[in-house]
Amino acid sequence: xxxxxxxxxxxxxxxDSPAHYTAGxxxxxxxxxxxxxxxxxxxxxxxxxxxxxxxxxxxxIRLDGPGGSEAxxxxxxxxxxxxWHDHGGSHGAFATATxxxxxxxxxxQLPTEGWKTLELADGVDRERTLGDGRGRxxxxxxxxxxxxxxxxxxxxxVHAYYPPLPLMRRYSRTGQVLRLEEVERPEEWT
Length: 190
Fold this sequence. Notes:
Blueprint: E1 4-5, H1 31-42, H2 45-49, E2 59-64, E3 70-76, E4 84-85, E5 91-98, E6 101-106, E7 117-119, E8 125-130, E9 135-138, E10 144-147, E11 155-162, E12 168-174, E13 177-184
Parallel strand pairs: 1-7
Antiparallel strand pairs: 2-3, 3-11, 4-12, 5-9, 5-11, 6-8, 6-10, 7-13, 12-13
């Protein structure tokens, strides 16, 4: 039985626009600036070619992001994905450099604490496919999973977050029930 049952509170039209997510009090980069950065970086063929690709698992290189943001270049073998997660309150953006990635997300703002299982209302699921050069920005309450559904082609993407990720919450999902499985801290990402 879920700890919390929430009605769908879909984003208001326009909430997904990058301009909607602005920097905090410390004037860090907005989601729009992060989206511009990941798109420009994804268009750098020398950088993309520098990422070693592994047929068995994702690979990554940490990059210098704009204005103190955290950025990553990530390689995705066929059939891999992130699983459901959030970004610990950071806003961000990602763009596909090569291949194609599918993002499945929830169009509802989840409570960040006080629950272990949550029953999702109908109609909160969203899905988009991002091919070469396509990207998207997201706000601080974004919950999603990213997948390379190709049976035979690697994908490479660029991701940026501000403030730098303080943590990531990992979830499992069965039907409409979302379960908090673990909280990862940056020191665990080697």
